Amino acid sequence: MIEASCHCGAVRLRVASAPVTVTDCNCSLCRRMGTLWAYYPQSEVEFLEAPDASFGYVQGDRSLATHSCRTCGCTAYWVPIGETPKDRMGINARLFPPEIVKAATLLRFDGADSWDLLPDEGTAGPV
Ligand SMILES: [Zn+2]
Q1: Which domain holds residue 61?
Q2: How close is the Cα of 66 to the center of ligand 1, in Å?
Q3: C-alpha of residue 116 to centroid of ligand 1, in Å
Q4: 11 Cα to the center of ligand 1, angstroms
Q5: Number of domains within the chain
Q6: Confidence class for position 1, pLDDT limits 50, 70, 90
Q7: How many CB atoms lie within 10 A of CB 79?
Q8: Ligand 1 centre distance from Cα of residue 13 (Å)
């Protein structure tokens, strides 16, 4: 089991295994938040947060809500919303212990334009 935690610890998420890849997306939101996304089926993620510990930001096509901690401000995860939500969510891998991010392969996703992976790959490096 590994745990992702915001800075103050109010928002924590527990998953069974470390992500093999983390995704750096360049879309208008992700580039500003500086997130690295690790994707999991929502049904496999244990949410360890009090009700209202985080707030969701909904924008664009309103297909997901990006949650940040109300106390320390760290962006923690996104979950699908809407009528037929998929069983997939993103955890901000920067909330995992640093060695988890270091060991993962970094994928660069062109969320700003082509919605495809960009060619250069490598590890996320020092965090
Ligand atoms: Zn916090």
Answers
A1: 2-116
A2: 14
A3: 32
A4: 6
A5: 1
A6: very high
A7: 17
A8: 12
